[in-house]
Amino acid sequence: MPGTLMVAAALASMAIVGQDNVQLRAAPRDSAQQQAILWQGDSLEIRGVKGDYLQVYDHRRERAGYVRATQARPISLKPADAGELLAVVRFLKDTPGAEALGIAYTAAYLKAAPAAEIGAETFDALGGMAERLGRRASIRQGKALDPALAAHMEVVQQYGVVLRGYENDGRIQLCYDGDAYRRVLALPADPAQQARAALGLTRQECLDPAQRPSERRSTDVWRAQLLDQVAMPDLAPHWQNRIQMRRANVWAALAFDRARQGLAPQEAGQRALDALASVSKIDLADEDQAPYAEAAVRVGSTIWAGQPVPAVNSGLRIVTASGQPGETCVSLVAQGGAHAPALASRCTYGIVWPASARANATGSALTLAVQPMAAWREMWLFRQDGKGWSIDVLPPSSQDPALGYAEFAGWVPGTPKMLVVREARVEGRIKRRFEVLDMTTLAVEKSADKPEFLTLFHRWQDPRWQRATVSLR
């Protein structure tokens, strides 16, 4: 063994395993019986040195044994040596795959450093590594978790890092509980550290799906308040974008919730729109393209929350009334007195957005936006045929309801055709389609990912739709 390593081992009482699949053996020989398999980040108590081996005790497994000295790094927990540990944390904090090792060094630094010297930087690094480990360990249903990742998760648990699992869109999402991020916000921190902490604590995919509506409401209000505390002027443009996208998500959810409670959703809906509009697309990083598309879909789902109901002077109109508890019944009537007979009726537990109602010039069709879930908006089509009036529901996609909207974009005069936009998350990706739809069969005649590729879309798109939609972002 090199002399420097022997001195280090003699002075230190602890060592951190520096790599995966390290064998803890019963004797200081490669042929000795294997006691356990150790992983990066495992901490060991050093009890001696024999040849090229450290004699150690693993308190987590309650096993004694020997490991090769090159596979474990002796560390000093003396306050004077805390700076060396922090230097290693700074090196590892942004290294993918080294989260367990970085968290182990962070825990060692927190033990060694005087309390007065521990600042937001350390907890910012700890939160980032814990969050990244959770993202890496999140898996699709039907796939097995990588054994090394599973072992790393067990390693970080001994340091108090808590990862919780939630099922989200066919995926088991492992989320850090955010304790380190809360400490960042409680300490003097620079704007980027505040932003990372706020984003880490407000992740949409880490909301507990088992929460009751009242609990989710409280969570969303807290998320909105937390994001509002971030000092935006001092942030770099890409961090400003990330905060604005998260604000758009939260305020869109609050707009839907307020409408569901029977409260005015206009303020929340407008705040969601303003936040999305504040995103600088020229400053969007590559990794922010998908979150931006998701934020746009969430805002698009509640786009009518911030719109006033226009006056209807003639033709068809929508009348709503209460049905069963929590239910809204929608009736289509011809313009007339208060007791005009209903041409067609249907009840829903979703949110009905009367401001979205659009009738064609001949009075033979009308569309209406109905939102059954916070991020899922359908389009109802009332249409007249030889048998009378019927109501069809056009969903954002044929997939299970998760994230998406379908919206009216215009009528094609003199034909039974209409223009529709659908944007939804399909197989993990946001897909947007501009469609020409035949109302008699609901078949899509033509579709494209950009409106300029469709002649009818270029010619007959509704100006009011063009002003309000987020699909043209």
CA-based gyration radius: 29 Å
C-alpha termini separation: 64 Å
What percent strand? 25-35%
Class by helix and strand content?
A: alpha+beta
* Total strand segments: 21
Number of helices: 13
Let me know the average pLDDT: 92
Low-confidence stretches: 1-11
Largest sheet: 8 strands, mixed
Helix share bin: 25-40%
Shape descriptor reads elongated
What would you say about this model in short?
By secondary structure, the protein is an alpha+beta fold. It has 13 helices and 21 strands. Strands 14, 15, 16, 17, 18, 19, 20 and 21 form an eight-stranded mixed sheet that branches. It has a five-stranded antiparallel sheet with strand order 6-5-4-1-7. Strands 8-10-9 form a three-stranded antiparallel sheet.
Report on the architecture of this protein:
- This protein has 473 residues and is α+β, with helices and mostly antiparallel strands.
- Among the domains are: 3-75, SH3 type barrels; 211-306, no CATH class; 314-468, no CATH class.
- It contains 13 helices and 21 strands.
- It has helices at residues 3-11, 82-92, 99-112, 120-137, 147-157, 179-186, 191-201, 213-228, 237-261, 266-277, 289-301, 455-460, 463-468; strands spanning 14-17, 22-25, 34-38, 43-50, 53-58, 63-68, 72-75, 139-140, 163-168, 171-176, 316-322, 328-334, 342-348, 351-359, 365-373, 376-385, 388-394, 404-412, 417-426, 429-438, 443-448.
- The strands form five sheets. Strands 14, 15, 16, 17, 18, 19, 20 and 21 form an eight-stranded mixed beta sheet that branches. A five-stranded antiparallel beta sheet has the order 6-5-4-1-7.
- Strand 14 and strand 15 (365-373) form a beta hairpin.
- Helix 4 runs antiparallel to helix 5 (147-157), helix 4 (120-137) packs antiparallel against helix 6 (179-186) and helix 8 packs antiparallel against helix 9.
